[in-house]
Design a protein that fits this description.
Oligomer: single chain
Order of helices and strands: EEHEHHHEH
Strand order of the largest sheet: 1-4-2-3
Largest sheet: 4 strands, parallel
Strand content: 5-15%
Distance between the termini: 13 Å
Shape: globular
Number of helices: 5
Low-confidence stretches: none
């Protein structure tokens, strides 16, 4: 069981498992055939107003996560369940395009999913 995060521009690795792009917009300059993306769940990305408000500012990180988690709770539960199902049986790698590696929606989504991942006894 594993949920990883990686920048979409990094070369794919066998250990990535299911590669899921979690950005609302397609990454600039990335050709679809070379990206090796298994799923593009743009509906799991933060809303445009939330994304623009946050702007990857570390001082807004806690509030961004709170608002983003509320959006996820109200959003597409089938997408969350798809990722959790895959994560229970293997590796899921959440892909993001942002240059900021510590404060982005993939990091927040990883935390959100891990808090909901039921581990067997």
């Amino acid at each position: 069981m594993s949920i990883r995060i990686r920048r979409v521009y990094e070369p794919p690795e066998e250990a990535d498992g299911l590669r899921v792009l979690v950005d609302r917009l397609w990454p600039r300059g990335l050709k679809k055939q070379s990206a090796r993306i298994d799923l593009w769940l743009r509906d799991l990305a933060p809303s445009t107003p939330l994304r623009k408000w946050f702007g990857h500012e570390p001082a807004k990180w806690a509030e961004f996560q709170r608002r983003y988690f509320a959006e996820l709770d109200a959003g597409k539960p089938e997408h969350i369940e798809t990722l959790l199902t895959h994560a229970r049986s293997g590796t899921v790698t959440l892909l993001f395009a942002a240059q900021e590696p510590r404060y982005n929606n993939a990091v927040a989504l990883q935390r959100y999913l891990e808090s909901r991942l039921v581990k067997p006894p």
